[in-house]
Amino acid sequence: KKHQPTKDFLCLMSDKPKRPFRRRLNERLISSGLQDAMVYRFNEKNESTFDDLKDQFQKKMIDRLKWKDGWPPVKYYNQTNLELSVETLCADHDETFMITEKTLKPITMKHPFLVLSTKDFLKNLQNLGFKTFHEFFDESYDNEPLVDKRVEIITNNLIDLKGKTHKLYQDSQEIREHNHLTLQHLIGEWTTKSWKMMDEMWKNI
Known about the structure:
This protein has 8 helices and 4 strands; from the N terminus they run βαβααβαβαααα. It is α/β, with parallel strands linked by helices. It has a 4-stranded parallel β-sheet, with helices on both faces. The protein is globular, with a radius of gyration of 18 Å.
């Protein structure tokens, strides 16, 4: 990562009929005039969706990818200071917690983030040991049961932060480093438990 930002925000999401909350967010971002401050993509997933990986990873690596969604577009993280992650699940009065690559990418890339997802998503992240960024912007959206209210608070955050994210990025280094180490720890812990479980299973066969 060679961080040389030219935009404030990063937001990449695909348009899917079963996820109408993404269209509502898209409408709000456009009407708020935030696109100029963003590396932004909102369209249907197709063959060209992952073309931006071609100039970031070796061809032999890309050819072997079974799941391209999981690879972070490094150049976009270099160009921005804050990511708006739009998760898979998001509905009114839904407290289901499912973390996907959409949130793990900014953690892996040591990026500050906001997340549009289900109610208490950030609270659940914190329970796993991660830190969020409430000292830098309003995270009250996490407590809201209604999607439209979450979208409103998130959009207002972006409006307030526009043109001010360089300092946020610098001042949040401790949190970003903590999250990166926490993710490594959780992966290592999960891997160790998986191997122990497999070992016990083979012993009992």
